[in-house]
Amino acid sequence: MMDVHAAGLGKHGYLTGKIPVMEEDSPGYTKWVTEDAIVRGWLLKTMEPHLLSLFIDLPTAKDIWESATQICKATRTKQDGRPVNLDFTELKGV
Total domain count for the chain? Predict the structure, then answer.
């Protein structure tokens, strides 16, 4: 749903990287930082509190999106009958 929301507001490129990270000395840098922060906020607000620590320090919306996508895929992968993402979450918390 988040990708649909972002696309509807013209911000999907921040998730996919089609709107690339700008250099600090670029003329549009301030706008990029602001818009990327908005998209990061959307992503983080949709997460369960116990998951925030996995994503809060990632620098861009694209990084959060890619990491969340990987974890969602891991949720579907099981090892010894236990979702792999549980092991990942526990390791990240160490």
Answer: 1
3-state secondary structure 14-63: HHHCCCCCCCCCCCCHHHHHHHHHHHHHHHHHCCCHHHHHHHCCCCCHHH
Nearest to 88 by CA among 63, 65, 67, 59: 67
For residue 36, what are the domain limits?
2-92
pLDDT at residue number 83: 60
State pLDDT tens for residues 73-93.
766 666 666 665 555 555 555
DSSP conformational letter for 82: E
